Structures are given as C-alpha cells and as structure tokens.
TrEMBL record:
<keyword id="KW-0812">Transmembrane</keyword>
<keyword id="KW-0472">Membrane</keyword>
<dbReference type="Pfam" id="PF12704">
    <property type="entry name" value="MacB_PCD"/>
</dbReference>
<feature type="transmembrane region" description="Helical">
    <location>
        <begin position="768"/>
        <end position="788"/>
    </location>
</feature>
<feature type="domain" description="ABC3 transporter permease C-terminal">
    <location>
        <begin position="248"/>
        <end position="356"/>
    </location>
</feature>
<keyword id="KW-1003">Cell membrane</keyword>
<feature type="transmembrane region" description="Helical">
    <location>
        <begin position="682"/>
        <end position="703"/>
    </location>
</feature>
<feature type="transmembrane region" description="Helical">
    <location>
        <begin position="241"/>
        <end position="262"/>
    </location>
</feature>
<feature type="transmembrane region" description="Helical">
    <location>
        <begin position="400"/>
        <end position="426"/>
    </location>
</feature>
<feature type="transmembrane region" description="Helical">
    <location>
        <begin position="374"/>
        <end position="394"/>
    </location>
</feature>
<dbReference type="InterPro" id="IPR038766">
    <property type="entry name" value="Membrane_comp_ABC_pdt"/>
</dbReference>
<feature type="transmembrane region" description="Helical">
    <location>
        <begin position="734"/>
        <end position="756"/>
    </location>
</feature>
<feature type="transmembrane region" description="Helical">
    <location>
        <begin position="297"/>
        <end position="320"/>
    </location>
</feature>
<protein>
    <submittedName>
        <fullName>ABC transporter permease</fullName>
    </submittedName>
</protein>
<feature type="transmembrane region" description="Helical">
    <location>
        <begin position="12"/>
        <end position="30"/>
    </location>
</feature>
<feature type="transmembrane region" description="Helical">
    <location>
        <begin position="332"/>
        <end position="353"/>
    </location>
</feature>
<keyword id="KW-1133">Transmembrane helix</keyword>
Length: 799
C-alpha cells in the first residue's frame, strides 16, 4: 500500500478523493441542518408548524384534535382604540398565554427605548401598542386606553412580532391583548369580521397526521397552512443559497472526477509491467485484481476517511452556527463515505480493470488502448448516482447532468472531425504549429478525454463563480449598507415641505415619495371584474376582494423591471405587476376601471412590470402615469435611513407630524444582513473548493501528457531540432489544447445562462466577465511552457 504513494498519479487521485469527500459530506451533513433551520425560520414567520385559519372559531372536534400538541391561538380583527376624544382604527390581536410558539416578541418599555425579547404576550388587563399607535394618539406607556367596553393599561411598545407578514403601507397600527380579555371587550358579536388562528408545534410525522385528520373537517372558510405548503417557503435567499451550494458541490465533485479519470490512465500504464509479470508467472485475474486494484482502493480509503471526518466536524460547527435543532446525521456521514467509493469505481477502476484483459506482450509493449470506450461510458453514467446521493432527486441538477453528458458524448462526434479539418488546414503553417497540432490530432484516445475534462472543469468553474457572485450581488444590492430602515405612511400634501426639511436637518437619506390612493378594481374592458376574470387564483381573489393601494409615477422604481410593453407616461395609462396581470388575465392594451374616493379611475394598460417584493422599497400592483390620480384623495409614502443610535430624534418627527405612521424595520434588516453574511462565508468556502478541484484537473492534465511530451522532445532532438523549436512547439501544443477548451467552455457557459437563471434567478442571469475566466488557463500555461526549458527522456533519466 505504501508503494502506491510514490506515484504522482496516485497522489493526485488521493487529493481528489479527499476534496470530494469533504465537499460531499459537508453538503450531506448540512442538508438536514439547513432544511431544519429553514423550517424553523418558516415556522417563526408562520407562527407554527401548522396553522388552522378561519373566519370563525374552530369546531370542538378540530380543537380536540389539535390541543393534544403544543399550541396557541390568536384572534385578529380591526377595532377602534379610544382615548378621551381621540379615536384610532387599529389591527388588534388577542393571544393566549402560550403565544408565540416560535420566536419572541420584540418590545420596549418606551417609544424609543432599546428593544428586548419577550417569550409571551400581555397579561390580562394590559395592552401592548405599536409605536405608531402611540404617536397617533399622543400617548405614553403607563396611560389607560379603551377597547370596546374595557379599559387597558398600556404596558409596553410592540417593536416586532415574530409572524408579522403584512405589507408596510397596508398595515394599521397594531395592538395586542390577552385572549382572556376578548369577551370583556364586547367587540366581537354575531356577524363580526375577524380571523381566528390555531397554531400548532409538531414534528413532521405528527404534522402530516394532523393535516390529514383536519382535511375532512374543514369548513368553506377554513384552510390549513403548514411550513411545507406555505408561500413563505419560496421567499428569501436561504432557498437560493442552498440550491446554489448543491450545484456548486456537484461541480466540485465533477472536477475531482475529471482529475481521477485523467490520472487513472497514467496509473494504469505504471502498473502494466507488474500486471504482465504476474500474468507470465501464472497469476489468475482475481489475484491480479486484488494486487493492483485492491492495493489502490485500500490506500485511497485513508484520504476518503480523513475527508469525511474533517467534513463531519465542519458540518457540526456550521449547524451550531445555524442554531439548528436537527440531530447529527450519522447516515449522512456514511453516505459521504459512499461518494468517494462511487467516484473511484466510476472514474478509475474501469481503466485499471481493462489491463487485466490484455496479453502480457501487449502490456510490456506499453499498449495505448487502455481507458477507451467502456471506461468513458461508465464515467458518463457515474454522475447520476452522485446526483441522487447529493440531492435525492434529479430535479435540481438535471441541467448540469444533461450538460455534462452532452459534452462527453458530443466531443467524439463533433470535435474529432473538426480537429482533423484544422490539421489539414495547418499543412502550410510554420513547423512548430504543425508539430504541435499533429501531436494532438494523431492521439485521439489521449486528446479527447483530456479535452473533455478541461472543457468540463473550465465551464463548471466559471459558471459556479458567475452564479455565486451574481447571487450575492443581487442580495447586497437589495440591502445596501444604508438600506431604508424606517417607512413613513399617511403624509399629506401640506406635510411634504416640512418633512423634507426635517430629513435635511437630520442628514437622512430619503427614497422617492409616492402618492397612495385607495381604490377597488371594478371592471376590465368595460365588463364587471367578476365576469372578466375567470382564473381561480389566490392572487386574483385577493386583488378583487379588497381595496388596493394605487400610485402614480413616470419613473420606474429600481426594484421593478418592465417585462412587456412600456412604462406609463401619459395621464390615463397604467402598468401592472406581471403576476397579478396573469392571474387577472390582463394584457397590454386592456382597459381597467377602479372605484375610488372621488370619480372612477379608468386607464389603459401600457406595460407589465416584474416586481422584487423582497426589496426594502414601496412597491405597487398598479402604477399610473403622473396626473391620473390627481383628483383622488391621497396620502404619501416613503422610506428613509437613520442610524439606530439616533432613533430618539424620531420623537421630533412624530411631534411635528402626529398623524403619520412610522414603521421601524431594523429588526428585519438585521436578520437579512446576517443571512447575507452567512451566504458570503459559504460562497468563499465553496469557491476555495472549486479552485482546488480545478487545479487538480490542470495537474492531472499536465501529468497525463508529460511522458509523451518527453518522448516527442527526445525524438525531435535526435532529428536535430534546437531548443527554440522545442519551446515553441510545446507552448503551441499547450495553447491549442487549453485555448480550444477555453473557447468551448465559454460557449457552454453562455448556453447555460438560461438553465442556471431558471434555477437561481427567475430566468435572468446576465452576461458577466466571469465568462472570460477559462481563458486564464491557456494564458498562464502557454507562458509557463514557453519559458521553461524543454525536458527530454534523457534529461529525465539523468534526474
């Protein structure tokens, strides 16, 4: 076993196995931890693992089915808060003592004091109010306010609720009371509009059982939402981060596989003499296989085991950083050890095994037909079990697997005739160019596998770096260093000048001001909206059953992109958010009518917009051209940035404009910035693995061609060739091989922009300078070869 380590080819294989073991095991160990962490975040945003929602309280049988599990309940309704002669419409939530199941409620003792976490809601007799409610009522903590027939003591200020999902500008000031006080208020009676939520904490199996049990008992007004089927699961960067990590790790493994495949042929040649001698003395195939393959397999088990152990420790550390409650996955560790075994069996063992079928004479003569068709076919099939091992399905990685197979199968079909054509065209070229290309064209069994490996390694490296950096760039552009952390709602026309002066005095960065008009969509192309809309979609139903917030602007917001048509720029024109337009059946040229506070609003659709709803900026479904909404009653909305340590200055703003609603989103920003920091660390680690794997492929390529290059140089020296010719020939050979690989890798990268964009960027992955990354290899390798002294077999023997 120790003799194997003397071989450069074997050492490269061992390093490839080590890197692949680290990459695969880390991903497998983290897969459950990341999914658990994602479920935790989703459960916090949702309020529970399972939520039974309805417009009335649940039936006794439903309550009995759920109350055996840890649970809580809340009742959400709109009502009026009264203080002396002041009235304020508020969104009130009555919660049981066990609320919240997940996360904490962020509260503060005064309007602008430092927030802290609470693990339960208010006690009976107390009420918690959001800061904007205190601002609007000009009240302070410790005063008394009335809700319905009951007076409450204002105990604390709500900063952030764990499951707060409402939009910024559609949200009334919030209030929270104990569920025990709900009956005493007398605000809910027959016909009252409210929303009851029964929230349950349950593991996966219990959750599925409860969901099935509730399915047959649901009333028309009820629905069950879980951490699996909620729309929240598709939001945020965590899903994109994990998907990109899976793709990148698969790319690392494929690069390691290319290095193993290339070095396997070199390793097989090193063992030809021993194999021939064993056959000559009468050893059978089992004995030869045990001696040649068994020794390598046993020796490679050491780096595989070392990689798995290192990755297990790394995975456990990252899981701790993620605050994951998932137990350590020993099954994932065993699967991580299986990955290197599949790699070696698929990319190295078939080539080593082929020499067992050759005669001793062929082996002693140095047969060059080792590692041709059969090993190539097995290598093509090996990524399939690797993808299954990493993801459990083909859905995520099918573009990459399809691309890999297309490259490997298409090379012999498409490139070999092209190589022969170029060879014929170079017959009148200078001698070094003819010699360099002839070396490649006459050795197809060496050139094609090497070219395939280089193309795959260069294309996957550039694609992964491009996608990873674009992902981080998108997130960071959404959350710049001074992203708006306060939203201002309910500004009036007469307040705008004074508000802008306040911002100037406090050096605050302000975003555009948008007018907001509340109106309901009533007709499309002159037909009643109920008759015009035939699609039964939640988005359409939500648009039809409530007033929408409309705005007007001739400038496209940074978080929007016109996907069809053009921006509205003349009064009577409007653009529509593309997904809502699809659910309503709207298209460019249609006419929409809204019923507002004054006269009806009619406009023609001039364009559709794609909206980034996760950006911290005001966004709208309908955006009219300036002048269309001038006759309607309107307020204004905007956002601005103010450092957290200057939050006390906001009291002056509230005092000057008591009617405004001031929304603090610092807690949300802090959470998302933490996610981006974790994503940057993950991208750096994966990028380091990718670079290491790419260097492995390059080393394997150089090792594969080194012996033949020495023999060619020795022959040319014997024929009288001088050193400059040898250098030019070697440099041109390196350039033809690596430059051709770089050209094809760049083409493949360009073609792969669509499938990568579909998986990671909703169909958009722009061109980037990362597509030029493959060209660094021919540049560096050609220059290196050009300045190194050519080595011949004689020089190698002397060394």
């Amino acid at each position: 076993m120790t003799k194997a380590w003397r071989s450069n080819a074997f050492r490269l294989q061992a390093l490839a196995i080590f890197i692949a073991a680290i990459a695969m095991t880390t991903m497998l160990v983290l897969r459950n931890s990341v999914d658990d962490r994602f479920n935790q975040r989703t459960a916090v945003a949702l309020g529970g693992d399972l939520v039974l929602e309805g417009t009335r309280f649940p039936e006794p049988a439903q309550r009995n089915a759920l109350e055996a599990m840890p649970h809580t309940e809340s009742v959400n309704f709109a009502s009026v808060l009264i203080h002396e002669e002041q009235f304020l419409l508020a969104s009130v939530r009555a919660v049981s003592q066990s609320f919240p199941l997940y996360g904490q409620i962020q509260v503060s003792d005064d309007r602008f004091s430092s927030p802290y976490d609470e693990t339960s809601g208010p006690q009976p007799g107390n009420i918690w109010l959001a800061g904007q409610a205190l601002d609007r009522l000009k009240m302070q903590v410790g005063q008394t306010i009335t809700l319905g027939e009951k007076a409450f003591l204002i105990e604390r200020v709500i900063v952030q609720e764990p499951d707060q999902q409402s939009g910024f500008y559609s949200m009334n000031p919030r209030a929270m009371i104990s569920l025990q006080d709900l009956d005493d208020t007398g605000v809910l009676g027959a016909g009252s509009r409210y929303r009851h939520n029964l929230l349950v904490a349950a593991e996966e199996q219990e959750r599925e059982r409860l969901e099935q049990a509730l399915a047959a008992t649901l009333r028309p007004d009820q629905e069950v939402e879980t951490v699996v089927n909620t729309e929240l699961r598709e939001r945020g960067p965590i899903q994109q981060l994990f998907l990109w990590s899976q793709l990148a790790i698969m790319l690392v493994v494929l690069l390691c596989a290319a290095a193993i495949f290339l070095t396997a042929r070199h390793r097989a040649r090193q063992q030809q003499t021993l194999c021939a001698v064993m056959k000559t003395v009468g050893a059978n195939q089992q004995q030869i296989a045990k001696r040649l393959l068994g020794a390598d397999a046993l020796a490679l088990f050491i780096p595989a085991l070392a990689g798995v152990l290192l990755a297990s420790m790394l995975g456990a550390f990252i899981a701790t950083r993620l605050d994951s409650n998932a137990p350590f996955q020993w099954q994932a560790v065993l699967q991580g050890l299986t990955g290197p075994v599949i790699l070696w069996l698929g990319f190295a063992a078939p080539t080593l095994w082929q020499q067992l079928s050759l005669s001793p004479l062929s082996l002693l003569r140095g047969a060059d037909d080792i590692g041709s068709r059969l090993p190539m076919l097995i290598a093509l099939a090996t990524p399939i079990p690797l993808a299954l091992l990493l993801t459990g399905s083909f859905t995520t990685l099918w573009p990459l697997l399809l691309l890999t197979c297309a490259i490997a199968i298409g090379l012999p079909v498409l490139l070999w005739p092209l190589i022969m054509l170029i060879d014929s065209l170079l017959r009148s070229a200078p001698l070094p160019a003819r010699l360099a290309f002839r070396r490649l064209s006459r050795r197809k069994t060496t050139t094609l596998p090497l070219l395939a490996a280089l193309i795959i390694s260069l294309s996957v490296l550039s694609m992964s770096m491009h996608a990873g950096r674009q992902l981080l760039s998108d997130w960071q552009s959404t959350l710049p260093e001074q992203a708006p952390n306060y939203f201002v709602i309910n500004l009036f026309d007469e307040d705008l000048e004074g508000f802008e002066q306040w911002l100037d005095q406090h050096n605050s960065d302000v975003q555009p001001l948008y007018p907001v008009v509340r109106a309901r969509l009533t007709s499309i192309n002159g037909e009643s909206v109920r008759d015009a809309v035939t699609k039964e979609e939640d988005r359409a139903e939500r648009a039809l059953n409530r007033d929408l917030s409309l705005t007007e602007s001739n400038t496209l917001p940074d978080s929007n992109l016109v996907s069809e048509g053009r921006m509205a720029n003349q009064p009577g024109e409007v653009t529509v958010e593309s997904k809502l337009a699809d659910s309503l059946g709207l298209k460019v040229g249609d006419e929409v009518t809204f019923t507002g506070s004054a006269m009806p609003i009619t406009a023609s659709v001039t364009g559709l917009r794609e909206v980034d709803w996760e950006s911290f900026a005001p966004n709208f479904y309908f955006m009219f051209a300036e002048g269309t909404l001038s006759s309607q009653d309107r307020t204004w909305i905007t956002s601005f940035y103010l450092p957290e340590d200057r939050a006390a200055e906001l009291s002056q703003l509230v005092g000057q404009f008591p009617q405004v609603s001031l929304l603090d989103v610092n807690a949300i920003l802090s959470s998302l910035q933490d996610i981006i920091a974790q994503a940057s660390q993950a991208a750096f680690m994966v990028g380091a693995l990718l670079m290491a794997a790419a260097l492995l492929v390059l080393s394997a390529a150089i090792l594969t061609t080194a012996d033949q290059l020495r023999r060619d140089n020795s022959l040319l020296t014997t024929l009288g060739a001088e050193t400059p010719i040898l250098r030019k020939t070697a440099a041109l050979q390196a350039f033809f091989m690596t430059g051709g690989a770089a050209l094809l890798a760049t083409l493949i990268h360009s073609l792969a922009l669509w499938p990568l964009g579909e998986r990671l960027f909703d169909g958009r992955l722009p061109f980037s300078l990362w597509q030029a990354l493959p060209w660094l290899l021919p540049l560096l390798l050609t220059l290196t070869v050009a300045f190194l002294p050519p080595m011949t077999s004689r020089e190698q023997a002397r060394q």
